[in-house]
Amino acid sequence: MLTTLAVENYRSLRDLVLPLSRLTVVTGANGSGKSSLYKALRLLADAARDGAVAALAREGGLPSALWAGPETVGRGPVQGTRRTKPVGLRLGFSGDEFGYALDLGMPVPTQTAFHRDPEFKRECVWRGPVLRPAALLADRDGPVVRGREPSGAWGRESHRIGLTDSMLTAFADPRVSPEVLLVRERIRSWRFYDHFRTDADAPARQARVGTRSPVLDHDGADLAAALQTIQEVGDPAELAAAVDDAFPGSRIGVAAGEDGRFALRFHQHGLLRPLSAAELSDGTLRYLLWVAALLSPRPPELLVLNEPETSLHPDLLPPLAALIAAAAARTQVVVVTHALPLVRALEAVGDDTALLELEKEHGATVLAGQDLLDRPSWHWPKR
């Protein structure tokens, strides 16, 4: 389980170190930095797939993603100052077993058309919750990576990788760095869900050929197949309870046609026939999508939900909170929300729930009520 998340110089997240729990609820006013925190987690996940550089390119490149304020935040008016420290975007996490951090910076000017591609300046994987020289397992400085041998000594050979490649992919060889491979695979299992579509042309409303789907697609296109998979290899009683809790007297079914297409059927008390996915309201369909996502028979290492309350009637928030709390018993969950009723419902049902409220201070995102002594212990690798 992750216990600490650290972000530096990413949009409004100038210097943020957050404690994480089994169920972490991130809330705050509009513009407080919730979306930036969600994107920072996704960027960390992209690094394990060698997609961090491309992800930053979609945001306009590293200069667009960097903290736009002064190097030092004070209480007076913002002054234009010259930077004295290397420009960099740093992301990292740690837990009881392993920690990982990356430092992305501007490239050294060369004769190339790709002059906006950020470079990995430092990357580290270590054992335990805090970065210490003795705990380092793999250390990357520019293009050079070295790994620690099982004996505890550093390997005699150093390895060179591309400056735009993460060592999580370019150095993850089980013969040389089994811990790096393990960290990479754990990050790759992280799962993100953000704003399911429920419009008339939404993928979840369409019948499609069904295959066993222990993990719901990010767009919900395989909703019927995912629900049928829960029925067959998951917990059908929990599925039935989640539907009945939100819609008393209702149940769901899945019709499989001769052409192999799966179609959702929603049986509601008082109706003479079941409703198809195309007939469901936006809120009902969205709730069923969350049911399929949260009751996955293959839980990830980390499940991150961005504003799951969107389009849901307030009466559906307590059942949703119960679903999220049940999922947190199987996997670590981070929920990003601005809906106070959902926050209160999650606090009521979660046994190990941490509430993190973000706010702005001189343009930078901070954790409300956190002093320097309250921050988890965290050390960035130095360039």
Automatic annotation (TrEMBL):
InterPro entries, alphabetized: ATPase_AAA_core, P-loop_NTPase, RecF-like
Keyword field: DNA damage, SOS response
Claim: DNA damage is one of the keywords in the record: yes
Pfam families: AAA_21
KW Chloroplast (keyword) present: no
UniProt-listed GO biological process terms: DNA synthesis involved in DNA repair; double-strand break repair; SOS response
Protein name, entry field: Putative ATPase
